[in-house]
Specification:
With 561 residues, this protein is mainly α. It has a domain of 188 residues. It has 18 helices and 4 strands. The protein has a two-stranded antiparallel sheet with strand order 1-2. Strands 3-4 form a two-stranded antiparallel ribbon. α14 crosses α15.
Length: 561
C-alpha cells in the first residue's frame, strides 16, 4: 500500500467517525450546559463547597473564579511535586526541584502540558494521577466553561451582563462530558495493550545482555483524558510514540479521534445554543479547510517524490514509529498542533523543514483548526468578529454578529485577545536568541554561521509558539532545563492562557448587556461560503503578516537550502 493510499484511508476513517459523532456529541454538550437540572452528585459537591448553583455571575465574577481556581491549582500541584518523596508510591524518587515544579504546575494548569523532565524518573505514580491527571480534567473543563460563557454572551440579553456560573460549568464539563467519555476511551486503549499499573517497573534483559528497568504507570486512564482534553502530557517520556502508551495503529487512530472529537463537536454545540446551526457549520468549514490544507502539506513534505525514495532507504523514517508510518505520523502531528494537545507519536524535530514548518504554522494560526477543548472555538469566534469588522468596513455598515453590534469596546477586546499570542512568541524568541548561550541557536557545530543555526532558531520559535499557545509539543533538539527557559516558558504559558480568557470573558459580558437587533438588508451574512472564505482569509492574513519574517528566518530558509 502506498503512503498516499494509506493516508487517504486513515483520513477518510477519521472524518467518517467524526461525522457520525458530530450531531449527537455536539447536541449532548449543548444540553449539558443549558440544563436547569443538577445531578445528585453535583448537588452534593455544591453543598460541600458552599456554592449556590442558582447564582449567575457577571464577567468580573466569572473571570475571578477562573483565576482563583487556577491559582489554587498551581499552588497545590507545586506543593505535591515538592513533597512527593515522602508520600506513598514515590519509590526512590525525591521531590521535584523548584524550577521544574513551577514550570510543570503552570504547564498542567494552563492545559499546556509542556514537559521539561523525564516522567519515569521525575514524577511518582501518586503525583501522576492525583496531580497531573486531575489537572487534565479540570483545565480542559475550564476551557469549555469559557467558550460556553462567550456563547451565552451572544444569546442572552441581560442588563447586568450575567454569563453563567463558572463553578456549575466547571463541574458539568468534568463530570458529564470529560469523565464518561475518557472512561470509554480508556477501555478501548486497554483492549489495544495500553498498560494500567501502579507498579513502578520491572527488569528485563536487553539485546546487549544488560539488565534494563522498564517503567510502569497507570497509563491508560491518563492517556484517555490526555488526548480527549487536548492536554498532551505523556506519562512516559516518549509520549504517544511509546508502545505502552500507543501500541498499535488502531490505538493511534483512537487517540487522534479523541483529540479531535470535542473541538469539532463544539461547533455543533455553538450552533445549537445560538439557534442557528449553519453558524456552527461555517466555523467547522473554516477549521476543516485549514486542517486539511496543512495535513496535505505535511504529507507531501514527508512522502513526496524525494521523500518516497528516501523512505525506501530508511532516511525519512528517522524519528517516526514504524507502527504508524508517515501517514499515521503526519495525521497525528497536524491534529495535535491544530489543537492545544501537544501529544506526539513521532519526533517533530525529525520532520522535514517543510513538514516541521507546517506543524509550526498550525500553532501560529492560533490553534483554531479545530483548536483545543473550548479554546479553539472561542479563538475562532474572536477571529470571526475581526472578519465581520473588516467586512463591515468594506461595505460601510455597522458590523453585527448574531444580532449583537460590534462597537469599539467589542473590537478592542477582540483585537487584544488576538495580539497576546504573537507578542509572547516574538518577544520571547527575540530575547532568547539574544541570550544565545542559553539556547541551541548556534546549532550542533557551535558555529553561528552553520546551517544548524537556522534549525536552532526554528527550535526556539517552536518552543515559544508551543508555550504561548498552550500546546506543549516541542522540537526535541532544544534543551530547556535552564532556569531561563523554565521561567520564560512558564510565564508564556500563564499569559498565553489567562490574558485571552480575561478578554474573552469581558467580551462575553459586553455582548450579554446588549439588546439584540434584527438583521437588515445590509447586514453581512455570517453563514455560508462567502463568510467561510472571508474568515479563512482573515485567519491566514493575520498569521502571515505577523509571523512571515520569523518563518522566513527558520523553516522557510531551511527548506530552501
Amino acid at each position: 500500500m502506498t503512503p498516499a493510499l494509506a493516508a487517504g484511508l486513515q483520513v477518510a476513517f477519521v472524518l467518517a467517525v467524526l461525522a457520525v459523532a458530530y450531531v449527537p456529541v455536539g447536541d449532548y454538550m449543548a444540553r449539558v450546559y443549558e440544563s436547569r437540572r443538577h445531578l445528585r452528585v453535583e448537588s452534593v459537591l455544591y453543598r460541600l463547597c458552599r456554592i449556590n448553583p442558582h447564582t449567575e455571575q457577571t464577567w468580573y465574577g466569572y473571570a475571578g473564579s477562573v483565576l482563583g481556581f487556577s491559582a489554587a491549582s498551581v499552588l497545590f500541584l507545586y506543593a505535591l511535586q515538592r513533597i512527593q518523596g515522602v508520600l506513598p508510591l514515590s519509590g526512590d524518587l525525591s521531590g521535584v526541584s523548584p524550577a521544574v515544579a513551577f514550570n510543570t504546575a503552570v504547564s498542567f494548569v494552563t492545559n499546556t502540558n509542556w514537559q521539561s523532565y523525564a516522567p519515569e524518573t521525575t514524577m511518582s505514580n501518586l503525583t501522576q494521577p492525583v496531580g497531573l491527571a486531575v489537572q487534565n480534567f479540570v483545565s480542559a473543563a475550564v476551557g469549555m466553561a469559557v467558550v460556553v460563557a462567550l456563547i451565552r454572551g451572544f444569546v442572552r440579553v441581560s442588563r447586568g451582563g450575567e454569563i453563567g456560573n463558572f463553578w456549575v460549568d466547571l463541574t458539568r464539563g468534568s463530570l458529564r462530558i470529560l469523565l464518561p467519555f475518557s472512561f470509554v476511551i480508556a477501555l478501548i486503549l486497554l483492549s489495544q495493550g495500553v498498560i494500567q499499573s501502579f507498579d513502578p517497573g520491572f527488569a528485563s534483559t536487553g539485546l546487549d545482555g544488560n539488565s534494563v528497568t522498564n517503567a510502569l504507570a497507570p497509563v491508560a486512564s491518563q492517556e484517555a483524558i490526555k488526548e480527549l482534553g487536548t492536554n498532551g502530557g505523556g506519562i512516559l517520556a516518549a509520549n504517544s510514540a511509546h508502545p505502552f502508551e500507543n501500541p498499535t495503529p488502531i490505538s493511534n487512530i483512537v487517540e487522534i479521534l479523541a483529540i479531535l472529537l470535542i473541538p469539532v463537536s463544539l461547533t455543533r454545540t455553538f450552533g445549537s445554543m445560538v439557534g442557528d446551526r449553519k453558524q456552527g457549520l461555517t466555523l467547522l468549514a473554516v477549521m476543516g479547510i485549514l486542517w486539511g490544507s496543512l495535513l496535505a502539506v505535511t504529507l507531501a513534505a514527508e512522502s513526496g517524490r524525494r521523500g518516497v525514495a528516501a523512505t525506501a532507504a530508511g532516511a525519512m523514517m528517522e524519528g517516526k514509529e514504524v507502527r504508524f508510518g508517515i501517514p499515521g505520523t503526519a495525521l497525528f502531528a497536524v491534529s495535535t498542533t491544530g489543537t492545544s494537545t501537544g501529544a506526539v507519536n513521532s519526533a517533530h524535530d525529525s520532520l522535514s523543514p517543510l513538514g516541521g514548518g507546517a506543524v509550526l504554522l498550525n500553532m501560529l494560526l492560533g490553534e483554531i483548526a479545530p483548536g483545543g477543548v473550548g479554546t479553539g472555538l472561542y479563538g475562532i469566534l474572536v477571529l470571526a468578529l475581526i472578519a465581520v469588522f473588516v467586512g463591515g468596513l468594506l461595505v460601510g455598515r455597522t458590523p453585527e454578529y448574531l444580532g449583537k453590534k460590534l462597537r469599539q469596546r467589542e473590537i478592542t477586546l477582540a483585537a487584544l485577545s488576538v495580539l497576546v499570542m504573537p507578542a509572547l512568541v516574538l518577544i520571547g524568541t527575540g530575547i532568547t536568541v539574544i541570550l544565545s548561550s542559553t539556547t541551541s541557536y548556534q546549532g550542533n557545530s557551535g558555529d553561528p554561521g552553520s546551517p544548524g543555526s537556522i534549525h536552532g532558531f526554528s527550535e526556539v520559535l517552536y518552543a515559544f509558539a508551543s508555550a504561548s499557545n498552550n500546546n506543549g509539543s516541542a522540537f526535541g533538539g532544544l534543551t530547556v532545563t535552564s532556569d531561563w527557559f523554565q521561567t520564560a516558558l512558564g510565564l508564556c504559558m500563564l499569559f498565553g492562557r489567562f490574558l485571552p480568557i480575561i478578554f474573552v470573558l469581558a467580551l462575553a459580558g459586553s455582548l450579554a448587556s446588549q439588546k439584540k437587533t434584527a438583521a437588515g438588508a445590509g447586514t453581512l451574512p455570517t453563514a455560508g461560503p462567502m463568510f467561510t472564505g472571508l474568515l479563512t482569509g482573515t485567519v491566514v492574513l493575520v498569521a502571515a503578516l505577523t509571523f512571515f519574517p520569523a518563518l522566513a528566518l527558520g523553516p522557510i530558509a531551511e527548506a530552501l537550502q
